């Protein structure tokens, strides 16, 4: 089974990835000695590749990285690539959600989508990019306590009216952007 070093330090993302990639690959955590990789690209693809390349170069192993953005129609696609620091460079998830809800307080259009890009980088230089998209709307207020990031304000169109934070991991993984990207990667890795 292929062993892949997971470039993210986000334990929530690792849990989701492990639950979706189980049986196809073995995920190993990013070495603690590797510092943060600066996400300086202006695209999700660019940031995912920056992280995967850095981890692969550091470990000499196959590396998997992701970058995810919430793209809101009424905000011309923002926060997008800046989703993790929407309320400022040192902002946390709660501050980012609060800013989003304030920015949309008068919006009649609340359509949005999550987009995840996965980059798989091999030590020999081969690179694979896949993406997953989940269409939805932004709730009027936060709902639910599971999940992370914008999960408590995002209602997927393919769901049952609950936010990601109300759904739990199994239900979320049935429709989420990350699950769709990982399923695409899984299909590529399972092909002989």
The count of domains is 1
Supply Rg. 16 Å
Task: Return the structural class.
Answer: alpha/beta
Helical residue percent? Answer: 25-40%
Query: What is the CATH topology descriptor?
Result: Maf protein
Portion in beta strands: 25-35%
Order of helices and strands: EHEHEEHEEEHHH
Main beta-sheet annotation: 7 strands, mixed
Cα-to-Cα separation, first versus last residue? 13 Å
Number of helices: 6
CATH architecture: Alpha-Beta Complex
Shape: globular
Number of strands: 7
**Whole-number mean pLDDT:** 92
Q: Residue ranges: pLDDT <50 for 5 or more in a row?
A: none
**What's the CATH class label?**
Alpha Beta
Which key phrases capture this entry?
single chain; 192 residues; alpha/beta; seven-stranded mixed beta sheet; globular
Describe this structure in words.
Helices cover 33% and strands 25% of the residues. Strands 1, 2, 3, 4, 5, 6 and 7 form a seven-stranded mixed beta sheet that branches. The chain contains six helices and seven strands; from the N terminus they run E-H-E-H-E-E-H-E-E-E-H-H-H. The mean pLDDT is 92.
Give a quick rundown of the structure.
It is built from six helices and seven strands, in the order E-H-E-H-E-E-H-E-E-E-H-H-H. By secondary structure, the protein is an alpha/beta fold.
